[in-house]
Structure formats: structure tokens, C-alpha cells
Predict the structure of Homoserine kinase.
Amino acid sequence: MAVFTDVSPAQLQDWLNHSNLGQLTALEGIASGIENTNYFVDVTRAGESHHYVLTLFEKLTPTELPFYLGLMHHLAAKGIPVPAPVRLSNGIFWGELNGKPCALVTRLQGRSVLQPSAAQCAAMGSWLARMHQAGADFALQQPNLRGLSWWQATAPVVAPYLPADIQRLLEDELALQTTHAMTTGYQDLPRGPVHADLFRDNALMIDDTLGGIIDFYFAGCDTWLFDLAVTLNDWCIDVATGELQAGACQAFLSAYHAVQPFTQQEAENWEMALRAAALRFWISRLYDFYLPRPAAMLTPKDPRHFERILIARRAGRYPVLPQS
Ligand SMILES: Nc1ncnc2c1ncn2[C@@H]1O[C@H](COP(=O)(O)OP(=O)(O)OP(=O)(O)O)[C@@H](O)[C@H]1O
Ligand SMILES: N[C@@H](CCO)C(=O)O
């Protein structure tokens, strides 16, 4: 269930009228997703059909939206397949419905895949490199709001729920990541706007082609390597065992490298990036598991999945980055 806030056809038609966006022909709540309320919305305008997704932001505040929606607009304008936000009559990309900030974005084709093939991992790697390049001249700056400062603030909140040995793992990794973030090697890594939540469920595939990437609402400025690590940790595993698949890793990393070659410095920071990416989602899943939102009838995602991934990366189980 992911319609936290109901919108009636009459309410939406009234909202569309303010921006002359046309006549509503279909409105359907979307069941998946855990962060926001989403609807599929069809309208006709000047005799043509348009297919959109309406998102009501349940937690985000209007101060964060210009970065996310502006980045999607910037990437879409450069031909990167992402939902393009619709500009409203107020000249910006977001408005308000039922007391929640909201946005209308174009609906993309495709379906998410549970177990991507090597060809699909390659499509993902190439998309990610092109997105990093295309985002490099985006004018707005916003940090990754689920970055180091958030881990430092949230780890002590979830730690008391964990057995002592797992608490020690959490504290040790956080301390190492804190020290690592101060090294010049880390600070000089290529960086810019990154998606930062590029899991399989955020990619819509049409066979081996990428229809597009959705859900930019954790995007922020961070190292490209962090984005790569988040994506590899989710895309290149055998879903049944959680272990990395060599063929998928190779396809994903080679495709990225062919568009945006890896630097020596990225190779040196790779293990810590993979560990950071595992730590980030371990902490957020622990938080959602032990401190769930009161109104949300949701099954929390398994935090132990990322505890195991962190342990595997600390033990050296990861592929090397290709070098030219
Ligand atoms: N632009 C789009 N085009 C096509 N389908 C979309 C689009 N945006 C969202 N969807 C559909 O809506 C579903 C829920 O969207 P999304 O994953 O963004 O949910 P969320 O609650 O906002 O985020 P989260 O993934 O963090 O739970 C997606 O799985 C996808 O099926
Ligand atoms: N991708 C996140 C969910 C929120 O975006 C996870 O799997 O924990």
C-alpha cells in the first residue's frame, strides 16, 4: 500500500485547471512504493493523451524539491531517460494538494526486474555513467541528505536495539568511514549529482533496454563512486543467495568504464565506497524496522540483508574496478 493521502478526481481536476493541464481521463493509485503517495494520471489536452505520475511527498519539504525536480528536468532535457516534471502555472515544478507538496511527471515505459541479466546490468552501468556526465553542469547544490552526517546522527538511535557484537560492527564501520571521509584521496574523488538509491525497483526495463530511472528523491551531491557502489550492491547479486555474480559485476562495471573511465583514485577508494553504500541502507532499514512511521501499514525491508553485505565487503568479497 502506498496511497497515504487520498486524492479525488474532482480535487485533481480542479488542481489541473489552475495550470491549464487538460481534462482528467484516468486516476489510479499505485500500490508499490514506501515513501510517497503515487497515482497514475491520464489527461487529454488539445486533443492529445498524456500519461503522467502524480506524487504527493509525504516526508519531503518544499525546500528539497527544487533540487530533485530541477535535476530530473536537467537530465530529461539532455535526453537521459528520466521522468520530466511538468512546469505549473506558478512557473515551478511543484504545487500543493491536500496539504502535501506534489509534482506531476511524465510516465515512463517498462517494468522493474527482480533478477537482472548481465545485459540489463550493462544497460544500467552505461545509464549511470551518462547520468553522472549529464548532471555535472547542473547548477543547484544539495548534499546527499542520507550521507555521513545522517549515519552519524542515526546510528546511535538504532544501536540500542542490536546485540552487542552487531553494535560493535556498526560503530566500527561508522568510525572507519568517518576517518576515511577526511582523507585527501576521498575528497578528490569525482563527484556531482548522484541518484543515491538506484535499486532494481527504480529502473523500468523494456527487455534489455532501459525505459528510464525513477525516484530521484534521495538524490544529492556525492561521489560518483558511492552511486556506483549502491547500484552494484543491489543489481549484481544473486537474489536467492545475496552473493555477487561475477558476470553481472563485469557487465555493469565495464559498461560504466566504457563511457566514463575509472581513475586510479576511484580504484583505491572502491572498497570503502561499497562498504559505505551497505552501511547507508543498513542504517535506514534498521531505522524503518525499529522506529516505523505510525500510519504506515508496511512490511519493513530486511535490515540484515545489508548487514550481511557489509560483512562480505569488509571481508574483501567484491570485484576490482576495470582500469584503462
Ligand atoms: N515516472 C514514472 N513512470 C512510470 N511508472 C512510475 C513512475 N514513477 C513511479 N512509477 C511507478 O510507481 C511505483 C512507485 O513509485 P516509487 O518507487 O517512486 O515509490 P516511492 O514511494 O515514491 O519511493 P520508494 O521506491 O522509495 O518506495 C514504481 O514502482 C513504478 O511502478
Ligand atoms: N531502496 C531502499 C528503500 C527506499 O528507497 C531500500 O531498499 O532500503
